[in-house]
């Protein structure tokens, strides 16, 4: 007897359960914030990327409400048909200025920004060189582009140079009229699951030495790093040497959507070639207006204060964690991974914390490599010193083996 459709799928799900890799949605009955209403309980939340506490901030809510009254809800069509409403243009102008770039283009998510952009720039004769730990959207984008994918060891400059040396060799003899093969290096500035920083200055030097292009995903740095808080590239003074600057409007900026910043030519090419931009309904003007307000806020003195509060909390957490028996590296971003190894250990630790009233889901394969399951703790500017103390007390009770 052959399996039915649902039997075949149920078998896959059972295999995931057996490996401790099954996932499920948890319904949240509250806005985003340091407290989440889940299953009738109020849990202290250390899992969100809403680093500046903007997702439910009046600054964004007021901008969204004003946009509803002025523009309604839906955008009606893709940007190239009739959906290119004023808030998208205003947002892209402030975004480009924020990033000190010539131009910016927004997408419905960071994921679709990656897929559309890499697909527009790279083809089957090209080589994409990625850090082993880059986000899944960058790997998917590279695969979808049809280019050759090369991986270098995480933050390892010697390995990157080695890969670039080999990538520079022509893959096949250039045929008449064909363009030169291109090499694109892709990395993150702050790694999403480890919270460590890429050696961006050295990567810029290397990609220039080998005539490659560079794309940097600032998903976890935008709004947080640099004097103007536009990201790590700004903090290091190398933004103008990065061909493609990418990020999301959905993390520290508290809204939703993805962006690309760069030269006017890059943006013009994407408008013509990025399929995830062209063949998708424009994001709601409400969300564009909210993201625009978030960028204005981040650049204001209040934004500076909010960001300083986040870094003060990260500093406090570093001190508290230093006193715990577990080995945690000193945090350099708002992301603090507590690596437990086995998938089951991470799941058990997350369940234990939930009993203590703390919400930190277990992060497992395929989000991180197998056997490197972890609790990914994220600190936000909205947490209080008491919140951090409560977390530390609960972590101290975790058995070393989970
Ligand atoms: C979240 C994330 C993305 C995707 O952005 P979305 O706007 O959520 O689609 C891309 N890159 C990294 C590193 C991320 O963490």
Explain this structure.
The chain has 402 residues and is an alpha/beta fold. It is built from 15 helices and 13 strands. The strands form three sheets. It has a seven-stranded mixed β-sheet with strand order 3-9-8-7-6-4-5, sandwiched between helices. Helix 2 runs antiparallel to helix 12 and helix 7 runs parallel beside helix 8. The chain is globular and about 65 Å long. It binds pyridoxal-5'-phosphate (PLP). The site of pyridoxal-5'-phosphate has 13 residues, from helix 5.
Q: How would you spell out the order of helices and strands?
A: HEEHHHEHEHEHEHEHEEHHHHEHEEEH
Q: Give a quick account of the main beta sheet: strands, pairing sense, barrel closure.
A: 7 strands, mixed
Q: Identify the strand order in the major beta sheet.
A: 3-9-8-7-6-4-5
Q: Shape from CA axes?
A: globular
Bound small molecules, which ones? pyridoxal-5'-phosphate
Mean pLDDT: 95
By secondary-structure content and strand pairing, the structural class works out as alpha/beta
Counted by DSSP, the helix tally is 15
Could you name the ranges where pLDDT drops below 50 across 5 or more consecutive residues?
A: none
Radius of gyration: 22 Å
Number of strands: 13
**Percentage beta strand:** 15-25%
Percentage of residues in helical conformation: 40-55%
> Distance between termini?
43 Å
């Amino acid at each position: 007897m052959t399996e039915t459709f649902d039997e075949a799928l149920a078998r896959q799900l059972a295999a995931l359960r057996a490996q401790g890799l099954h996932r499920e949605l948890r319904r949240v009955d509250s806005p985003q914030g340091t407290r989440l209403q889940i299953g009738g309980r109020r849990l202290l939340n250390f899992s969100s990327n809403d680093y500046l506490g903007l997702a439910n901030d009046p600054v964004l809510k007021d901008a969204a409400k004003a946009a509803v009254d002025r523009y309604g809800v839906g955008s009606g069509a893709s940007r190239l048909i009739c959906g290119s409403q004023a808030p998208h243009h205003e947002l892209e102008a402030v975004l480009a200025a924020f990033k000190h770039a010539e131009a910016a283009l927004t997408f419905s998510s960071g994921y679709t920004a990656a897929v559309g952009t890499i697909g527009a720039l790279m083809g089957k004769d090209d080589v994409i060189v990625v850090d082993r730990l880059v986000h899944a959207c960058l790997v998917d984008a590279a695969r979808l582009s049809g280019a050759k994918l090369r991986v270098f060891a995480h933050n390892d400059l010697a390995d990157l140079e080695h890969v670039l040396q080999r990538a520079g060799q022509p893959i096949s003899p250039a045929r008449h009229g064909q363009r030169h093969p291109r090499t694109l290096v892709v990395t993150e500035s702050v790694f999403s699951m480890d919270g460590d920083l890429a050696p961006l200055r050295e990567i810029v030097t290397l990609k220039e030495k080998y005539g490659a292009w560079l794309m940097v995903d600032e998903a976890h740095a935008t709004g947080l790093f640099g004097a103007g808080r536009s990201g790590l590239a700004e903090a290091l003074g190398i933004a103008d040497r990065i061909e493609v600057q990418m990020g999301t409007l959905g993390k520290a900026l508290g809204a939703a959507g993805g962006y690309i910043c760069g030269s006017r030519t890059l943006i013009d090419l994407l408008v013509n070639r990025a399929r995830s931009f062209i063949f998708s309904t424009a994001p709601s003007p409400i969300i564009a207006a909210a993201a625009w307000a978030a960028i204005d806020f981040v650049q204001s003195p209040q934004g500076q204060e909010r960001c300083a509060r986040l870094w003060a909390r990260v500093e406090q957490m570093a001190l508290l964690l230093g006193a715990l028996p577990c080995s945690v590296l000193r945090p350099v971003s708002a992301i603090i991974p507590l690596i437990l190894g086995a998938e089951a250990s991470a799941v058990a630790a997350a369940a234990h914390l939930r009993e203590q009233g703390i919400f930190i889901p277990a992060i497992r394969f395929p989000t991180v490599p197998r056997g490197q399951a972890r609790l990914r703790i994220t600190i936000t500017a909205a947490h209080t010193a008491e919140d951090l103390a409560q977390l530390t007390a609960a972590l101290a009770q975790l058995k070393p083996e989970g």
